[in-house]
Specification:
heterodimer; A: mainly alpha; MetI-like fold; B: mainly alpha
């Protein structure tokens, strides 16, 4: 069969340009991160990694991610269940609202939290008098990260659950199954991969969020520096190797994210051809 | 209203969990999304109209609108072309390493923006791998608007590729065949036959890339250098005002950024909806 652009000359040219641009814009930066991190050798790399501020940043990043992902997972599942299994007024509005974090600049996201919980904010005064600190401390970082990453799980689940319909769940109800049983035994197996994919995306963004977090964190070394903030701070201090050491951890995680995503898609495609 | 909603849900639906999922969703959306956003409105309400106008028309801020818009337009146009090319090559051709290239397209979403920022700034600085090649040619990227556009383009690469790719995959081979048997040349056939099919996805992807670029912060600030009136982007101006504890000024500028991106997102959704309706014979 003849198709447009199938002439060998056209094909070679287009593939050539595509690969060259991919190498320049995507591969080269990736290589540069690891090259810069390892510039002074592996010993310096390990030394930089075990720096106490870097270790503290890794710890804080893990804490933020461990709190953010389950919260958004639970919320995403409930929201998806709500908008795909029930008809009610305002359903479309809810679906639009959940997209807001994707449109909002991260700095603006940080700002609105600062306005709410900051010392002069609406709740700031009350929190201050009760000695609860949210801004410039880890709770603020967690809240801002939840804001920025909350659409991911719901966005993966909603189209899928919409397409699947509610027939099987309804059948389960007529057989007398309880809500939790229906979800666990009927719905969950069908949405497992989308759910996992949503979690992977949430996780990647939660670990790497910079703009919103830098507004609410206040960058106190060893206390409110997440790993991306640590990258920034070391870079501003002209400690390039140190900055790229922390960056290399984040890049490694990004590569793992891509691999997990590719594996999930590959399995989904294989199942499709099998049936 | 909620009470009547609850009753309706119970009457019409056999599935359990309506009240619980509505409660959880509304609580979450109110606390995490709406309450913080209303605090911005509250902050703005303390300003008089003339104060607000003065804050958002400050010459340095206005210059930052220009820089941000120009760089975002260039980044989006670059991505329209690059994304279309990548989608085409990944769907239509077979070559070694194709799956790897396909997976790499998502790198900008997986890589933290600050990491992208410091990496691009290092690569394109005058002593960097790419920068030192460009310097003799008289091209400087770091600390100019070119660098800003480059960083914006990097972070929004996946949008066009991932919106065009599925549409191209679903395009039946007959479309090509018809054009070719009619004797059309490749470029002509592509423009007249394929492009109209891809157009809605291409515009949507480019629009999303543009919105993302307008708000980008982490990837841009390192390569931008922050020369007032020249390489300051609007989200950096908000950040700077916050560091100076100028919450009113930061909020005023933020309201412009927020309104712009929400309006654009709405426009993209409407545009997309129109095409989906047309494709499904008005049943969308």
């Amino acid at each position: 069969m003849v198709r447009i652009g199938d002439a060998p000359r056209v094909k070679r040219l287009l593939i050539g340009i595509a690969l060259a641009l991919t190498a320049l814009f995507l591969v080269l930066p990736l290589v540069a991160i690891f090259a810069q991190a390892l510039m002074r050798g592996i010993d310096v790399y390990w030394h930089n990694l075990s720096d106490s501020y870097t270790v503290a940043a890794i710890g804080l990043t893990l804490l933020v991610t461990l709190l953010t992902v389950p919260v958004n997972l639970i919320f995403g599942v409930f929201l998806a269940w709500l908008v795909t299994r029930f008809e009610f007024p305002g359903r479309r509005l809810l679906q639009t609202l959940i997209d807001i974090p994707f449109a909002v600049s991260p700095v603006v996201a940080g700002l609105v939290y600062l306005l709410l919980y900051g010392r002069n904010g609406w709740l700031g005064g009350w929190l201050d008098s009760h000695d609860i600190q949210i801004m410039f401390a880890w709770p603020g970082i967690v809240l801002a990260t939840i804001f920025v990453t909350c659409p991911f799980v719901a966005r993966e689940l909603i189209p899928l659950m919409q397409a699947q319909g509610a027939r099987e769940e309804e059948a389960a109800v007529t057989l007398g199954a309880s809500g939790w049983t229906i979800f666990r035994r009927v719905t969950l197996p069908k949405i497992r991969h989308a759910l996992l994919y949503g979690v992977i995306l949430t996780n990647a963004r939660a670990v790497g969020e910079f703009g919103a977090v830098s507004v609410v964190a206040g960058a106190i070394r060893g206390q409110t520096n997440t790993l991306p903030l640590q990258v920034e701070q070391l870079y501003q201090d002209y400690n390039t190797v140190g900055a790229f050491t922390s960056a290399s951890l984040l890049a490694l995680l990004a590569l793992l994210t891509l691999a997990a995503k590719a594996a999930l898609e590959w399995r989904a495609a294989r199942r499709e051809t099998a049936t | 209203m909620i009470a009547s909603t609850l009753r309706m849900g119970r009457q019409r639906r056999v599935l359990p969990g309506f009240g619980l999922s509505l409660g959880v969703s509304l609580t979450f959306i109110s606390l995490i999304l709406l309450l913080p956003l209303t605090s911005l409105v509250g902050q703005l309400a303390q300003l008089s109209a003339s104060q607000y106008w003065f804050l958002i028309t400050d010459p340095r801020i206005v210059a930052s609108y220009g820089v941000t818009l120009m760089a975002a337009v260039i980044a989006a146009l670059f991505n329209a072309v690059f994304g279309l090319l990548m989608a085409w090559v990944l769907v239509r051709y077979e070559f070694p390493g194709k799956r790897l290239v396909d997976a790499l397209m998502d790198l900008p979403f997986a890589l933290p923006t600050a990491v992208a920022g410091v990496t691009l700034a290092t690569l394109y600085s005058s002593s960097g791998w790419v920068g030192q090649l460009l310097e003799p040619l008289g091209i400087s990227v770091a600390y100019t608007w070119v660098g800003i556009a480059l960083a914006m383009a990097f972070t929004s690469i996946p949008f066009v590729v991932r919106t065009v790719q599925p549409v191209l995959e679903d395009l039946p081979a007959e479309v090509d065949e018809a054009a070719i048997t009619l004797g059309a040349k490749d470029a002509h056939a592509f423009r007249r036959v394929i492009l109209p099919h891809l157009w809605p996805a291409l515009v949507t992807g480019t629009g999303l890339a543009f919105v993302r670029s307008l708000g980008e912060f982490g990837a841009v600030i390192f390569i931008a250098g922050g020369k007032p009136y020249e390489t300051e982007i609007t989200s950096l101006m908000i950040f700077v005002k916050l560091q100076e504890y100028d919450y009113a000024g930061a909020s005023a500028v933020a309201s412009i950024v927020l309104a712009t991106s929400l309006a654009l997102l709405l426009a993209i959704n409407l545009w997309q909806g129109r095409f989906i309706k047309r494709l499904h014979g008005g049943r969308g």
